[in-house]
Amino acid sequence: MPIPYLLTTLLFTFVALLAATDASLVSINLVSAFPALRWVRVHFITLGILSQVIFGLLPLLVASLSKKSRPAMRWDIWLTLNVGFVALVAGFAGMNHPMIFTGGTLIFISATLLLIQLWNVRGGDAPESLKFYITGMFYLLVGIIIGTGIYLNWSDTLYIKIPLEAHIHANSWGFMSLVFAGLLVDFVPMITGRPLSSTKNVSIIFWGMTLGAFGLVLGPWLGGSLPPTVSGLILHLSSTIWLIVLTIQAFKASGKLNSAGAWHLVSSYTWITAPILVAPFILLGYLEGGSIESIAPQALIYGWVLQFGIALIPYIARRFFLKEENSQLGGNWVSLAGATAGSLFVWASIFIVPARGVLYGIGFALYAIALIHPLKELAEIARTGLQKIEAS
User: Fold this and answer.
1) In terms of Cα–Cα distance, which of 177, 142, 178 is closest to 160?
2) For 71, which DSSP code?
3) pLDDT for 26-45, tens place per residue?
4) Quick check: 304 and 268 in contact, CB under 8 A?
5) Full-prediction pTM beyond 0.85?
C-alpha cells in the first residue's frame, strides 16, 4: 500500500472520528454551532477512507496475484482523487455548484484512470477477483454521474426519477459490494490458508451481485419500478448471503472465527442486508420510507463499510506496507461492540420518533468509540513503516 494512500487514510479516519463525535453532540443538543452535514460524514467513510485503500491497493494486489511486476505509484490517480474529494466536501459544505462539479469531475477522472489500469491486467494469470473490481469501478462511475447530477439538475436530462436512491444503490450495491466481494475472494485465502470456494461458485456470486445491482439502480431510475427492484433485491441478497456463508465456513475451518477482526467482517454484512430486508415493506406501503431513506444510509455506511474497513485496512497495511506475511485483522472487541451497538441505536432512532435525537446521538458516540482503536492501529503502522524506511 503506497505511503501517500496510507497517510491520507489515516488522516480521513481521524476526521471521520471527529465527524461522528460532532454528529453525536449535535443530536443530543450539546453542540449547535457547527451541525454536521450527514452526506459529508458518509463521504469521509466512502471516498475518504475506503476509496484511499481501494485505489492504492488494487493495482498492487492484482499485479501481485497476476505474478506481474509491482506497478509504479500513479500520482495522477492519487491527486485527482484527493483534490476532487476536497473540492466535493467544500462544495457540499457551502452548496457551491461549481465546486461540486469540479470535485465530481476530478473523482470521475481518477476512477476512470484506475479502471483503465485494472482493465489492462485482464487475461493470463489475472485473478478471479479482477472482474469484481472492474465491474465495481464501472458502478462507481455511474454513481458519480448520478450523485453530481443531483446538485446540478442533471436528473431530468438523464430521466432519473429518484436520483438519490439510484446514486446510493450504484455506490453501495454496485461499487462497494462488488469490490468488497473481490477483496474477500482474495484475502480470505491469505487469512485462512484455504480458498473461499470454487471458481464456479465465485462466478455465480459475481453475476448475481452484478445483475442484482443493475436491477437496484434501474428500479429508482425508472421511478421505483417493482420488477427490476424486486429481482435485483433477490439476486443481490441471495448472492451476498452465499458469500458470507462461505466466508464464515472458511474462518471457522481455520480457527480464525474467534477473533474480533473476523467478526467485524462477518457481522458488518448485517447492516447491508437490513435495508434490503426493509425495502419490500416500503415498496408495499407498510412502512413510511422518508425516515428510513434518510437515516438508514448512515447505519449502512458506519455499520457495514466502516466495520469492513476496521477489520481489513490494518491487515492490508501490515501485509503490503510493513511486509508482514502473518498479519492480523484489525479491530478489537471494543470496536466491534461500538460499531454494532451504534448501528442498533441509529436504526432504533428511525422507529422511536420521540427519542430520535438521543438515540441517534448515542449511536454516533458509539461509532466514535469504535474508531479509536483503528486510528491507533493505523498510526502505529504508519510510524513503524516510516521508521523502517528512514533506517534503510
Assistant:
1) 142
2) P
3) 666 555 544 445 556 667 67
4) yes
5) yes
